[in-house]
Specification:
single chain, 259 residues, mainly alpha, elongated, transmembrane helix, transmembrane, membrane
């Protein structure tokens, strides 16, 4: 397991994909800071050309609770795309670059290889979430946002962390699709379909029964009037994550690699 982890970490370190994902979360934090800057004084924002003369942003205050909520919501939606990209790359690259046979010829079990990939994916996504939190704290301090409290900050960080973990669990079927489809495109297709269906189901009011809508509901993206996912929704997310890991491991262990 240690050798498999070291191999996957080395692949990630020599790739540009980690930098791409880091830039994506940096932009997300910066966009949140821009919204807070505009909400602080919309007349100032108009004079600087940040919004149109007749435009106005509504539905929030420029304070720490609003900013933490924005970061959690970004993790719920943007995280599905970015974390999905991580899973697509970790699993799909072996087939797209024709390295899967070389990988499976090593004296390491296929299950161990899959486990190492999922461990790296989880650590990668948690690092991105930590980066988002640190950048958010820095930007919020620079903007001197009101409403800071230790309890509120802990609650906001916990919400972002919980959303990140659940979103990561929901990308395990993307890893399965990239494996079964033997490349990047099947995983990307499943990822995009999940994001689209999550938005539709949440808008219809049944998000608590659809696992991919649960992180958005938990972060408050669907609005305060939407039903909370509750324990049932969280349990669905855990079941999907476990099923995705198990199915991916079974496929790698039993599938014939004839290419």
């Amino acid at each position: 397991m240690i050798n498999a982890l070291a191999t996957e970490i080395l692949k990630a370190r020599r790739s540009r994909v980690p930098w791409v994902t880091a830039v994506a979360f940096t932009v997300a934090a910066a966009v949140g800071g821009l919204f807070m800057f505009i909400l602080q004084d919309q007349y100032r924002a108009r004079s600087l050309g940040l919004i149109g003369t007749k435009a106005a942003l509504v539905g929030g205050e420029a304070d720490w609770p609003t900013y933490f909520a924005f970061l959690a919501q970004t993790t719920a939606v943007g995280g599905m795309l970015v974390f999905g990209l991580v899973s697509v790359w970790l699993f799909g690259r072996e087939f797209s670059q024709n390295t899967v046979k070389d990988l499976l010829a090593l004296p390491t079990s296929r299950t161990t290889i899959v486990a190492a990939k999922f461990v790296v994916a989880l650590a990668w996504c948690l690092i991105l979430a930590a980066q988002l939190v640190l950048l958010g704290l820095l930007i919020g301090a620079v903007l001197a946002l009101p409403g800071w409290s230790g309890e509120g900050a802990a609650s906001g960080v916990a919400m972002i962390a919980a959303t990140a973990v659940m979103t990561m669990l929901l990308t395990t079927p993307v890893a399965l699709a990239s494996s079964v489809g033997r490349g990047y495109l099947p995983g990307v297709g499943v990822m995009m379909a999940a994001v689209f269906c999550a938005q539709v189901v949440a808008a219809l009011g049944y998000g608590q029964y659809f696992p991919w809508s649960v992180p958005a509901l938990l972060s408050g993206l669907a609005g305060p009037d939407r039903v909370s996912p509750g324990l049932f929704g969280v349990l669905l997310v855990v079941l999907v994550g476990a099923a995705g890991v198990a199915a991916t491991a079974l496929w790698w262990r039993n599938a014939d690699q004839d290419r």
